Every structure is written in structure tokens, then in C-alpha cells.
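Sequence, please.
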């Protein structure tokens, strides 16, 4: 299953769309039912390090080597509505480094409301930036978004939303750099977790940026029109340690 997921990531195909007709966020195929929908979703119910989580009681680390170094480059926009979210597939050449680990950016997508909470507080949206390293291990950077001023980066994305689901839009002459989505303060929380969509594969390293960026109410409403709710509820910590790098 992990090799299959990595193949999808490497090709820029949405993980979610592979099971588009088998799970959802409401009704008979809602998150509480995911583990029963098909055998390879069992980890959604049996896993012990599931995501998202409510982040609290973080252990603070303030040493320089733990900081994320972002090396994101501008790329042509490739955006798709995969039936579960809006996703942007990212061309090779952008990455993060954390200590001696390097993770290549593959794609990013959005959840409304944000799946993560911090000390019980929710946020309006979150962008999940999905990366993988040379060994195929996954890492996700979560950028929280809350209502406020207009977000210039999102303005470009929303202006180029696909007209139909599961068809990628690649408008000529439109480039983006996801670095423009990041807050100025890149302090973060880190922990071991999982994919937040079926099959809920574990062994994913999470980096949740501590400071939210803003989006306007109209930008939030535009996404909510497409996806009124596409967030998995928070999952038990089961004794996991959460680290904070300031």
C-alpha cells in the first residue's frame, strides 16, 4: 500500500481521488465509518498515531538545527478539484530540509475547517503541503489560515479553479510559488502521524506551523461553496510527544 501511495504522489495524482466514490465526510461513508468501508482502510480505525490532532503540551526545542529550511521555487500552476478538495500538483525541484533530512514537495491541498487544533482552538482552513524524501517517507507541512485580510496567493488559485471535478486546469502563463503562502514566523510543532484521508497510512512526519496566515471572508466562502466541510475530526494522541521548534 505504501509503495502504491508513493507512486501516486510521484505522479502528482491525488491520493483522495483514487477512492473518490468510497468515502466522504458525511453520512454512511463519514470518517467514523472509514475503517469499515474496505479492507485497506482498516488503519483509520486501528491506528495508534492518527492525524489530525489537537496540539497541546508541546515540548519546546530551541536549537538551530531543528528549523525547517524552505527551498520552494516558482512553478506553472496545475490545479485540480479531485472531488474531496482543491489540490495543486507541484513540479519537481522544491523541497524542505530539516536537520539532515530533505523532503521534496509533491502537492498541496486544503481542508475547511482546519483539521488541526492548537490547545482546543480551531482555524478556518488549512493547507497541507505534502512532501516525500528519497527513501519514500512522507512529511506534511500544515499552514493554518484564519479570516482576516485577503490572501494574494489564494487569489491566484481561486481565479483559476477548475470548472469540473477530476480535470486538471493548467492555465497558460500562470505561475505560483507556495513560499508566498507561508507566514513570516515559521516556528512549528512536529509529531508522528498519518494521512488524514483513507487509507490513513501512518509513519508520516507532521510539521504544523504555529502562526496562521490570513484569508478574506470572500475567499473562505468561495472554498466553502465547493466544500462546506472536508475535515477529519481530531484523533487520540495515545501518548505521542509533540515537539515545538521556536
Amino acid at each position: 500500500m505504501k509503495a502504491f501511495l508513493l507512486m501516486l504522489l510521484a505522479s502528482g495524482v491525488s491520493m483522495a481521488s483514487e477512492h473518490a466514490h468510497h468515502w466522504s465526510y458525511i453520512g454512511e461513508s463519514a470518517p467514523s465509518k472509514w475503517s469499515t468501508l474496505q479492507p485497506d482502510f482498516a488503519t483509520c480505525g486501528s491506528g495508534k498515531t492518527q492525524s489530525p490532532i489537537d496540539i497541546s503540551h508541546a515540548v519546546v526545542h530551541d536549537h538551530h538545527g531543528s528549523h525547517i529550511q524552505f527551498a520552494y521555487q516558482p512553478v506553472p500552476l496545475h490545479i485540480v478539484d479531485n472531488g474531496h478538495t482543491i489540490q495543486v500538483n507541484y513540479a519537481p525541484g522544491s523541497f524542505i530540509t530539516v536537520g539532515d533530512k530533505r523532503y521534496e514537495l509533491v502537492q498541496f491541498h486544503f481542508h475547511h475547517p482546519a483539521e488541526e487544533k492548537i490547545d482546543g482552538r480551531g482555524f478556518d482552513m488549512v493547507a497541507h503541503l505534502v512532501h516525500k524524501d528519497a527513501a519514500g517517507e512522507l512529511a506534511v507541512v500544515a499552514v493554518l489560515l484564519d479570516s482576516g485580510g485577503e490572501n494574494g496567493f489564494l487569489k491566484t488559485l481561486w481565479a483559476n479553479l477548475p470548472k469540473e471535478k477530476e480535470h486538471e486546469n493548467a492555465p497558460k502563463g500562470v505561475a505560483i510559488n507556495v513560499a508566498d503562502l507561508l507566514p513570516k514566523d515559521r516556528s512549528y510543532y512536529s509529531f508522528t502521524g498519518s494521512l488524514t484521508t483513507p487509507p490513513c497510512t501512518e509513519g508520516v512526519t507532521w510539521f504544523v506551523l504555529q502562526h496562521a496566515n490570513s484569508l478574506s471572508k470572500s475567499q473562505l466562502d468561495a472554498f466553502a461553496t465547493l466544500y462546506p466541510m472536508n475535515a477529519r475530526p481530531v484523533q487520540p494522541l495515545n501518548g505521542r510527544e509533540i515537539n515545538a521548534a521556536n
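The helical segments are 2-11, 34-37, 43-46, 152-158, 217-226.
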